[in-house]
Amino acid sequence: MLKILAPTIMLFPTIWLTPRKWLWTTTTAQSLFIAFISLTWLKWTSEAGWTCSNPYLATDPLSTPLLVLTCWLLPLMILASQNHMNPEPINRQRSYITLLALLQTFLIMAFGATEILMFYIMFEATLIPTLIIITRWGNQVERLNAGTYFLFYTLAGSLPLLIALLTLQTTSGTLSMLILQYPESSQLDSWGNTLWWAGCLIAFLVKMPLYGVHLWLPKAHVEAPVAGSMVLAAVLLKLGGYGMMRVMVMLNPPPQELTYPFIILALWGIIMTGSICLRQTDLKLLIAYSSVSHMGLVAAGILTQTSWGFSGAIILMIAHGLVSSALFCLANSAYERTHSRTMMLARGLQAIFPLAATWWFIANLANLALPPLPNLMGELMIIVTMFNWSPWTILLTGLGTLITAGYSLYMFLMSQRGQTPNHIMGLQPYHTREHLLMVLHLAPVILMVVKPELMLGWCY
Amino acid sequence: MWRKLFTSVPAFIAPKVPCRSFKISSRAAEKDFFKDLDAQLKAFWDKASKALPGNDWSPIELTPGLPPERADVVIVGGGVVGWSIAYWLKMKARSRDGLRVLVVEKDSTYSQASTVLSCGGIRQQFSLKENIQLSLFSAHFMKNINNYLGVINEDPVDLQFNHSGYLFLASEKSAHIMEENYNTQRCLGAKVALLSPSQLKERFPWMNTEGVALASLGLENEGWFDPWSLLNAFRRKAVSMGVYECFGEVTAFKCAADLAITPDGDVVNIKRIKYVNVQMPNSLEYQPVECTIVINAAGANSGKIASMLGIGLDPKESVFNAALPVEPRKRFVYVVHCPDGPGLDTPFLIDYTGVYCRREGLGGNYITGMSPEETEEPDISNLDVDHEFFQEKVWHRLAHRVPAFEQLKVSSAWAGFYDYNTFDQNGIVGLHPLVNNMYFATGFSGHGLQQSPAVGLAVAELILDGSYKTIDLRAFDLKRILLQEPIMESNIV
């Protein structure tokens, strides 16, 4: 673990001491190097469930895929931000990359934490660099509102979690995940215990986000600069899913009347947010709402506490992280050229950017869960586990899949196909950097087709 | 309730030092104290209500009236053409926040705007098919204006549309042109009738038909209306649909440029506007508005806006770099009072000498004027009226045609600018080849008001659909100026 964490912390001297001409090159190279080394975690040698451990940090089959995703994403974020940060003064560029690296450090420590309280502290700590990125480098005045929503929704959800964790510490004497996994089933016989159960989950449901508490996400995703959107969509949402999965082991067995409302909200959210996507005109808002839709499926899968549910959730989280981040990068390339997020004005792009249209095509196909991509595998596993939980859910999940296919195709056809309008004839061609960014996003998704067991978690 | 508590204070609490007694003894002092208390509570409540949601207080003091930092379409010019385009763009965008449109207008009082200084006439008697179609659509729009521009819970729009029609008089020399135009107009659906001098005399006995060979009268969809009402109707409806309005002056454009080589071998810069700098009135503060499309609907100032982009500054660079041939031309309008003048069914009379006249209101007032000769264009630095022009040029021609006008009194006069297209006096709609994202909708040379609803729809279709769907305005494209192929009207006033 330290072999990844130490180079990430050494990114800070790299950022501040490199000469201006080499700043972006060296930071990208160093973060790419860290990403490649993190791939070694995927080789699962231990039988004991947790490896690479020291007293505070360890990896297990649940956290490994998310850790690799986090490390993989940092070079991609730096690649994506290079263009829009170019006109800024050098120290501001350094601050920006510092914030990204700081976020990375907190995320690695969060996913690798063995003690739930350390996970909680890192979970909260990730809010700060993200807030600074959104409010300082966002594009519009609404970013202040977005930052406020983002911060206070998450905080309001996570303060009950702190109380619940401290209660757990006093009753069971430990907060280490290694020990808490041994079952001591929680008897939810009193109101206090019920509230404790809810308190453990609410923070993660707000972060996922669950449909009823999802309002922060469209605002934050849209107002953030591209690196902020990427990290929000790809990793920060998964913090919620990961936290839920960790905490679920001690919330066993789930009482029907407590999981029922959350599962129904999640499933209903898939349909509702999918329908919003169908009539959305702003490209980034469409991708943000599609994130809510996919994460609703993940939340429902985790709440059933079955092995297929967990496996489906993890694989959908990883696949969605990569694909959503890819879509945000594509939307940003279009935005940098036309200065508009409206799909009505930046349409018919296939005629002028054919290779980028290929990336759009693959990303949208992945978004609509085309077989054999891992998005479908995850969705199928969750749909099957929901069917097992209750046969009626097939109506909601089936309709959700249909609507997802609808809006993904709508996004592709609106932005790429059709006649190119006259006012976007003189746009700059795509840079190699942007093509590289897309390949680095989409190649892992395609490679996961051949070895999905890397991402299936404990239950493989 | 607290009054009872405060009116009686025990003696031991009251201080012994000689000062005003704690005990409130007089009625007036008591009232003062409680009025103060009430005022303080009210002040406290006002301040606290700022923290409640729904209030627009913000800790960051922004200049009021600043435009948003980003807009999809920026329309330069808040006249009737600009607001019409804004309205149609929002109508065609399917959802409310789909397209962010910003209209930038320099003058909040509209004191020099061509729209409000116009006579407000609308006619279909043109010779170009596009002009006829534009006016026909606009007349249909204005007859059903509340279906288009009605806002719920607001008063209905009243344009005061007088359907009296236009009456053109032709001399021997130009009678054949009038007949050709009449055929074109009838083919396109305009309701026009040709009158011989005797029919003219029968219908309008107050007219002196000497020298008139043929007359053409518009029977339907022609007349005059109140331009201020139309402008405000468009503006009210557009603002209700979410169009942003900003009063400020466009001072500069920030562009990105790429070099390109034309077929002739010249090297030109193709520009793409990234930001529009909008300067606040009476202030040095400006806001760069990031935008995708800019529409130049600035009327008489369109040429100035175009030159900010370097269009036409170096014509030898390439044939593509032709300047926008729109400049302001001043025209005078005189209000005259003649109690024995023509009656209420007087059409908008336009004589072959160039003088025109129409009824204004019901009190025997008329509006009249004339286009000056090319060589005698008035000075455009201000909007002062030249009364000598009326005395020397207009009056005698008017009195010759309408004998009752020999006895009249000029009650007032004003002047306004035409956005005059010096090339061929017809509108310019479309993109410039050297600026990738600036659309033009200007140069209508006095017909902008009557054609504005249709032009707005055409520009919105061009932007959002890629081509014209309702009325084909490809003939009005800028390339006719580059290729030096004018499309001329046969009759103009």
UniProtKB/TrEMBL annotation, chain A:
Cross-referenced Pfam families: Oxidored_q5_N (PF01059), Proton_antipo_M (PF00361)
A biological process term (GO) from this entry: electron transport coupled proton transport
Location of this chain's protein in the cell: Mitochondrion membrane
UniProt key word Hydrolase: no
Sequence ranges assigned to domain NADH:quinone oxidoreductase/Mrp antiporter transmembrane in this UniProt record: 113-404
GO molecular function, one term: NADH dehydrogenase (ubiquinone) activity
Membrane topology: Multi-pass membrane protein
Reactions mediated catalytically: a ubiquinone + NADH + 5 H(+)(in) = a ubiquinol + NAD(+) + 4 H(+)(out)
Function: Core subunit of the mitochondrial membrane respiratory chain NADH dehydrogenase (Complex I) which catalyzes electron transfer from NADH through the respiratory chain, using ubiquinone as an electron acceptor. Essential for the catalytic activity and assembly of complex I.
Name the UniProt record assigns to this protein: NADH-ubiquinone oxidoreductase chain 4
Organism: Puntigrus tetrazona (Sumatra barb)
Name of the encoding gene: ND4
